[in-house]
Specification:
There is one protein chain. This protein has 12 helices and 9 strands. The chain has 272 residues and is of the alpha/beta class. Helix 10 links the parallel strand 8 and strand 9. The longest helix is centred in the C-terminal third of the chain and has 16 residues. 49% of the residues are buried.
Length: 272
C-alpha cells in the first residue's frame, strides 16, 4: 500500500522533472507469453530504464486495442489469466521493487465482476499505484476514483485528438497521477503520427490540467520517442513491446524487452 502524501507516480514525475528527463512507460499484457515470465519482464523493463510500468488486464474484447495487443490478451486468456493473477503478479514484483510505479490498464467488465470496492482494496494490498479503465463513462469513473483515492491510488484517464475542451476540463477534475494522450485517431499499433499536431494538442491539454501528460499509441521507434519526449512528459510504448514478446524465443521475452527499453531510454535521453 502507498504510504505518505505523495504517490509513487507523483514522486517519479517530480524526480524526472528535477533531472530534466521524461518518463518512459512500457506496456504489456499480464500472462503474455506466460504468467511466470511477467515479473522477470517487469524487472527487465526497470533495468532497461523504464520509469513506470503499465500492465494490461487480459480481456476478451479489448476494443481500443489493435490486433497486436488483442492477440496478447488472447494468449493470456487461453492460459486462464485473471484479474486476480494480475494483482498477484504486482505483489510478486513488489517483493523486490518498492519504488517503480505500476498502473493497471483494462476494461470495466473484470473490475465489475470483482466489485469496485474489493478491486480497490486488493490493488492497495498488491502495491498498485494507478488504474486506467478504458471504457468507464465519467460517472462510473468518478465512483471508482472514490474507492481508489482514499487508498492513495491514482485514477489515470485517456484523452484523444477528438476530445473537446469540455471533456478535457471534465477529465482534469478527475485525473491524478498523469493523463494518457492518445496520439492517433484509431486503435493502438497504428503508425502515422503527426508530431506537430501532437505538440499542439499536448500544449492545449497542459493549459487545462495540473498533472503530467504522457503520449502513447503508434510509438514504434527511437526517433519518434525522442521527438515526442520533447513535447510530452512521458512516452508510452505498448504494441512495439508486445511484438517483441510475440517473436521472442521461448524464455527470452524478458531479455528482448529489456534491450528494446534500453534503446528507447537512450534515444529519449539523447545518448545515441
Amino acid at each position: 500500500m502507498n504510504g505518505g502524501n505523495v504517490s509513487r507516480i507523483s514522486a517519479t514525475f517530480e524526480r524526472l522533472a528535477r533531472e530534466r528527463r521524461k518518463a518512459l512507460i512500457p506496456f504489456f499484457t499480464v500472462g503474455d507469453p506466460t504468467l511466470s515470465q511477467c515479473v522477470p519482464t517487469m524487472d527487465a523493463m526497470v533495468a532497461g530504464g523504464a520509469d513506470l510500468i503499465e500492465l494490461g488486464i487480459p480481456f476478451s474484447d479489448p476494443m481500443a486495442d489493435g490486433p497486436t495487443i488483442q492477440r496478447s490478451s488472447e494468449r493470456a486468456l487461453k492460459q486462464g489469466v485473471s484479474l486476480s493473477d494480475v494483482l498477484s503478479a504486482v505483489a510478486g514484483f513488489r517483493q523486490k521493487n518498492a519504488t517503480t510505479p505500476i498502473v493497471l490498464m483494462g476494461y470495466a467488465n473484470p473490475i465489475e465482476r470483482m466489485g469496485r470496492e474489493t478491486f480497490a482494496a486488493r490493488c492497495a494490498q498488491a502495491g498498485v499505484d494507478g488504474v486506467l479503465v478504458v471504457d468507464y463513462p465519467p460517472d462510473e469513473a468518478r465512483q471508482l476514483a472514490g474507492h481508489l483515492k482514499p487508498l492513495g491510488i491514482d485514477s489515470i484517464f485517456l484523452l484523444s485528438p477528438t476530445s473537446t475542451d469540455e471533456r478535457v476540463r471534465e477529465i482534469a477534475s478527475l485525473a491524478t497521477g498523469y493523463i494518457y494522450y492518445v496520439s492517433l485517431r484509431g486503435v493502438t499499433g497504428a503508425s502515422h503520427i503527426d508530431i506537430g499536431e501532437v505538440a499542439q494538442q499536448v500544449a492545449r491539454i497542459k493549459s487545462m490540467v495540473r498533472v503530467p501528460v504522457g503520449v502513447g499509441f503508434g510509438i514504434r521507434d527511437d526517433a519518434t520517442a525522442q521527438a515526442l519526449s520533447r513535447v510530452a512528459d512521458a512516452i508510452v510504448v505498448g504494441s512495439r513491446i508486445v511484438e517483441e514478446i510475440e517473436v521472442a524465443a521461448p524464455g527470452q521475452a524478458s531479455t528482448a524487452v529489456g534491450a528494446l527499453i534500453k534503446r528507447f531510454r537512450q534515444a529519449m535521453d539523447g545518448d545515441q
